[in-house]
Amino acid sequence: MAEKLNCLIIGSGPAGYTAAIYAARANMKPVLYTGEEPGGQLMITTDVENYPGYPDGIMGPEMMEHFKKQAERFGTDIRYELINKVDFTGDVHQVWTETGHEIEAHAVIIATGASAKWLGLESEQRLTNNGVSACAVCDGFFYRGKEVAVVGGGDTAAEEASYLAKLCPKVHLLVRRDEMRASKIMQDRVMNMENIEIHWNTEAEEILGEEVVEGVRVVNNKTGEKQVIPLEGFFVAIGHKPNTDIFNRWLDMDETGYIITKPDSSKTNVEGVFASGDAQDKTYRQAVTAAGTGCMAALDAERYLVEKGIL
What we know:
Elements (H helix, E strand, L loop, with lengths): L2 E8 L2 H13 L5 E3 L13 E2 L9 E2 H14 L3 E3 L3 E5 L5 E5 L4 E9 L3 E3 L5 H5 L5 E2 L2 H4 L8 E4 L3 H11 L5 E4 L9 H8 L4 E4 L2 E7 L6 E6 L5 E5 L2 E4 L3 E3 L30 E3 L11 H21 L4
Parallel strand pairs: 1-2, 1-8, 2-5, 8-19, 10-17, 11-12, 11-17, 12-13
Antiparallel strand pairs: 3-4, 6-7, 7-8, 9-18, 14-15, 15-16
Helix pairs in contact: 1-2, 1-7, 5-6
């Protein structure tokens, strides 16, 4: 027998928890499934200094605990389980948890986020948040005046390198091929910045340092020549993968898997299904913008339920 809900939120993090706060206050009786990573990417973020309202900064996990408590305060039912199957055929949306529990929801808010792609180095994992980062806008401030490296050849890498070049005396851009995939305008920007050095045909072999990043050993994949670059920050900018695979057959997405929403809304191509946060935002990817779209999704869902006569 399927459990019947007014509003189901799939995923936690700033988008999911903000959607839950608004939905609960609107008496939508939301149920939120946290997914595999309760709290999302902020759970592996140390200092958050750019979220409004925290003048002294805050640790990512602590911030997500605040979000969760606020959602619970207004009556959100938070469940620590994964949704792994959906069926958006009818007016009432069917989903299943990993244990086989079936849910029928009138409104579904997707807040499954995206995961940074990593190189897969042991040293990269060990030094994450100790000099290794996947977000220059989030963490670049901590490397002001320090020498850093950025890995990647696309627009993201070019943007991160350009951003860091305003803060750091030297930025090493490690590009795996002999050309960049970035758009022409972004390539020109990088190449015209004097303190960005591009290392072509170069791959990171190991990030050096025991407790903090002290350098990187790189290898030229054409000549086999190796060198050590001393630095204090290592930024991985090879892209993000949105956590949207289970919605593949049902929702319109771009070529990389980000859910496409209708202009100025969180509405997807399926009526009653709304998308928020990094699952649909490949441009900004900040906690504050994710929270904003979570708010939008809850308001859109509320209007939908009122129009349907469910609320």
